[in-house]
Amino acid sequence: MRRVLPLVVLTALASSASADGFYFTEQIGATKVHDQLGAYMPDTSLRVRVSLGVRRDRWSLSGYIGGDIGNSLSTGADDPVFDTYSSGPATLTSYGLDLKYVSPVTRHIEFYLRGSAGGGSLTGAGLDGYGGRSLGVGAGVQLKGKVPIIGLLWFPLFFTNWGPKMTASLYVDSGYEFYRFHRDDDPSIDAQVSHVTVGWSFGSDF
Questions:
Q1: Taking the CA atoms of the chain, what radius of gyration do you get in angstroms?
Q2: Domains of the chain by range and CATH?
Q3: What is the reported pTM?
Q4: For tag attachment on the chain, is the N or C end more exposed, with fewer CB atoms within 10 Å?
Q5: Does pLDDT of 56 surpass 90?
């Protein structure tokens, strides 16, 4: 019995490992800000984000940090929030958790739906000190497969068959987030943020 028990434990761990996986992902794309914050980030902004996550079966949970970087702009005396002149790039820094439900279509193609909860802060354009919470939804499609780990040293090596492999994916993501920002006794600022990004992930069997 003592010999059987370690074998059972090792088998369970192996089964769990095949269903679970850790990953790192980066994404970049374009953001459009609506609502009150749109007055300070009126044009399409640049979005960058990095995440660390874990997947089990069809569910994955990741923590993220990112930024939406707007163009430089100015506000004047008729500004709805500020009565002093200010200028500079407006930036939204965000952080939080993403929960995804993944639906495989083929061995290498997967669709997913996700929800997010987190927070954010504003800098630039006279918005320094504003912070608040956010909720979001999104969806995407990813192309997934095994690639050589050595490709992390030099991109073309991903297309070889040398050495141990890891899981990698390329994906397109579209989403929507709602923020409400507060600062002391100043009026709150609402923001609706829509985005489209492309990204890439590396990790174990996610």
A1: 21
A2: 20-203 (2.40.160.20)
A3: 0.79
A4: N
A5: yes
